[in-house]
Amino acid sequence: MKFGGTIIIDQPYEKVAALFADTNNLKEWQEGFQKKELISGTEAENGAISKIYLAQGKRKMELEETIINNQLPHSFEAVYHHIHMDNTLKTSFIPINDTQTEYKTEGEYTRVSWVMPKLMMILFPSMFKKQAFTWMENFKRFAESQE
C-alpha cells in the first residue's frame, strides 16, 4: 500500500530541512516518540541503522530505521522495520520562494506479516495514510513556530 502527501511550510528551505534533520526535534512532531538510538554506522549517513522507540498509550513499539539515501537538505529516504511490517519513506523539501518550502512524503508498506494490520489495511487504508499526514501537519506547526 502506497501513501503520501504534500504540505507547504511557511519557513525557508534550509531551516525546514535543518529542523527535520535534528533528531532532538522528533519528539516535537512524532506523537509517542520516546528516543532514537544508533545501532551501527555513522549517524545520519547512508547505511546507518537506529532503533526508534514509540509509545501509544500503554502500547510500546520499536522500529528499526535504515537510512537508504540521505541527501538533506533536499531529501531523506529510509526503510523502517517492525516485527509485523516494513515500510519505506522518502521525504523531500523543495524551496518555493525565500519563505516557503514544499514538504513531500512518499511511503509504501512493503511487508505486512500479521493478520490484524493486513485486515486494517484492507478495511481502513485511510487510517495508515492519516498517520503520515498527521505527522506532516505536526511538523509544519513545529517548524512554523520556530524563530
Question: Mind telling me the CATH class?
Answer: Alpha Beta
Q: Report the sheet with the most strands, covering strand number, pairing sense and barrel closure.
A: 7 strands, antiparallel
Question: Helix and strand string, N-terminal first?
Answer: EHHEEEEEEHH
Name the beta content range. over 45%
Low-confidence stretches: none
CATH level 3 topology: Alpha-D-Glucose-1,6-Bisphosphate, Chain A, domain 4
In total, how many domains does the architecture comprise? 1
DSSP helix count? 4
**Percent helix range:** 25-40%
Give the CATH superfamily. Answer: START domain
Give the total of beta strands.
Answer: 7
The CATH level-2 architecture is identified as 2-Layer Sandwich
Mean pLDDT: 90
Supply Rg.
15 Å
Morphology = globular
Strand order of the largest sheet: 1-7-6-5-4-3-2
SS class: alpha+beta
N/C terminus separation: 37 Å
Describe this structure in words.
The chain is α+β, with helices and mostly antiparallel strands. The chain has a single domain, classed as Alpha-D-Glucose-1,6-Bisphosphate, Chain A, domain 4 (2-Layer Sandwich). Helices cover 29% and strands 48% of the residues. It has four helices and seven strands; from the N terminus they run E-H-H-E-E-E-E-E-E-H-H. It has helices spanning 13-21, 26-29, 115-123, 125-144, and strands spanning 2-9, 33-40, 49-56, 59-71, 75-82, 85-97, 100-112. A seven-stranded antiparallel sheet has the order 1-7-6-5-4-3-2. A hairpin with a 2-residue loop joins strand 3 (49-56) and strand 4. Helix 3 crosses helix 4. The longest helix is centred in the last third of the chain and has 20 residues, at 125-144. The protein starts with a strand and ends with a helix.
